């Protein structure tokens, strides 16, 4: 899927880490929510409420998922899941364009 | 307006200046196109094809419009027009969230 049709896009961006991570909140036709975001190179820690499904549209990074010491490399076209109510860490190597879906 | 409803948003971001300027392309219900973007602090030069209407959702910057030497300060809630087929320059002081409309 290259675009989301019949969607509602919040005009105001979500801005984190002094603008090094930013995203747009989109409500899809079925009522579900995704964010389309950009991460600049750097190391970040995020916390989830709902479980999340992260799709990497472009970029290179590695992820340390909750409860796991190893860092896993992730690149364009790949994805990973993060459980809800958890923290995860990212080391972003190149500008990364992502789509995050929030799972019920 | 705080959101665009019934719109189509391209999944892939537009990425410029090594990620310091990024945007999302949105086609509105009436077929017109806007981009929602983020600019990190820095100095940039852009070129227009169609005339553009730039709305600053948040942030502080100054703009040098085509053919004008003076820099004009622009901040959250303000906007400016840029003629088509022209270059303009921006000095972005704080992370800036913008909406750019392309005028026919």
UniProtKB/TrEMBL annotation, chains A, B:
Keyword match tRNA processing: no
InterPro entries reported in the protein's UniProt record: Ppnp, RmlC-like_jellyroll, RmlC_Cupin_sf
Coiled coil stretches, renumbered: none
GO molecular function: guanosine phosphorylase activity; purine-nucleoside phosphorylase activity; thymidine phosphorylase activity; uridine phosphorylase activity
Keyword Glycosyltransferase recorded: yes
Keywords: Glycosyltransferase, Transferase
GO CC, one annotated term: cytosol
EC number: 2.4.2.1, 2.4.2.2
Biological role: Catalyzes the phosphorolysis of diverse nucleosides, yielding D-ribose 1-phosphate and the respective free bases. Can use uridine, adenosine, guanosine, cytidine, thymidine, inosine and xanthosine as substrates. Also catalyzes the reverse reactions.
Protein name: Pyrimidine/purine nucleoside phosphorylase
Organism of derivation: Pseudodesulfovibrio mercurii
Upper classification of the organism: Bacteria, Pseudomonadati, Thermodesulfobacteriota, Desulfovibrionia, Desulfovibrionales
């Amino acid at each position: 899927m290259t675009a989301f049709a019949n969607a509602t896009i919040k005009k105001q961006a979500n801005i984190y880490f002094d603008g090094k991570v930013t995203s747009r909140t989109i409500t899809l036709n079925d009522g579900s929510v995704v964010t389309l975001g950009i991460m600049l190179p750097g190391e970040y820690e995020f916390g989830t409420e709902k479980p999340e499904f992260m799709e990497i549209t472009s970029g290179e990074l590695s992820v340390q998922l909750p409860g796991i010491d190893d860092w896993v490399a992730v690149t364009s076209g790949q994805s990973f899941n993060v459980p809800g109510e958890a923290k995860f860490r990212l080391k972003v190597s190149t500008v990364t364009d992502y789509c995050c879906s929030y799972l019920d």
